[in-house]
Amino acid sequence: MTLLPKMTKSQGIGLLFVVLILFIDMLLYSLLIPIVPYFTETLKPSSTMMGILFSSYAIAMLVATPIFGPISDRIGRRIMLLTGLAGLAFSTLLFAFAESLPLLITARFIQGLAAAATWPTALALLADLFPPKSRGAVMGIALTAISSGTLLGAPLGGWLFEASGHRTPFLAAAGFTVLNILLVALFLQEAPARSQSEQLRVSKFLRHPQVAYIAGIVLLAEIALCLLEPTLPNFLTEKLSVTPAMIGLLFAIMTLAYGLLAPVAGALSSRFNPFLLMFIGICVLAVFIPALALANTLWQASLAMALVGAGVGFTLSPTLATLGEIIDRSGSGAYGIAYSLFNMFHAVGMVAGPLAGGILTDILPVSTVLFVVAGSILGLGILLYVFLRLKQGTAVHAGSHDINM
Predict the structure, then answer these.
(1) What number does CATH give the domain 197-405?
(2) Could you tell me which CATH number the domain at 9-193 has?
(3) Which of 328, 313, 308 is nearest to 403 (CA)?
(4) Which helix (H) or strand (E) holds 46?
(5) Can you give the pLDDT at residue 375?
């Protein structure tokens, strides 16, 4: 089994552009993190306003994704990608020169709108270019690009900030985004836009049992991942006396494990039952989340973070290729709608995860919260899998290539 399938020149160029687009998107998302103390000191925002600043990205993505994904099916991927990249460049420049919190929130909101245009369209472009047997591997590579951008954004932003001020990280990222726009405009080729007869009814697609199962799996994995962000730092600081730098390293380890496992799981999804792989990933995630509460040393915490990240990557990667296969069977080619769904539940998780973490930790100790979350994920994951089995009416055979199960 090879993680990188053989591809034509046009496929290779398309994959390269998707990797660059998703990488810069998440690089910009995490670039703000090390600069937050500067804005906190200069603008004196309340905790509520800072919460609004960070949640505005996910809210914008949630609102705009169901609009932009179907549009990309009608007008083509290239135009939508260029529109999203232009929005990213504009929002990044707005970050660089914003001198008030409302402007920062506006920049973050526009960034979320731009991500709603680029994410589902980039993934749909891969589905256009690659056949089903290769799609799992390339979707895993796309997820690795996402995790790599997340991993590098914060340290790169911190280094540029310390080197030459708070505007430099955003100006450098804006320049990289503009370069990306030029490359896409000059070199990207795509399949023609879909005719009206090829378009897909969203309501019918959402009622599909396999789609409902994937939506639930994505939501569980994203909530679990995003719930850790506001709860773990203080918990690990108090328990293990780690520094902020070490907290950053622990989350980097989790992100790295996510990125490394995603292509592996994607490649496996073209050879084995993808729904079973998703279920195994959710079970692994649920088993290892409590390890975060039980860790008594930095090495144990590092291992637990790596296992949790690997569980999320293993869970999410098969969902992307499988959504594409469901679209293939419908005969519509409307991949924009399929990946809009992924993006929507990703955004819901980004909003609901931190909110759930904050509410639960106000009621229970963090260690108890981690066990509660693990039990909930495992129980809901089992219910989702039983639901799918009942809906399909046939047994799941490990190693089956039949997506109909």
Answers:
(1) 1.20.1250.20
(2) 1.20.1250.20
(3) 328
(4) none
(5) 94
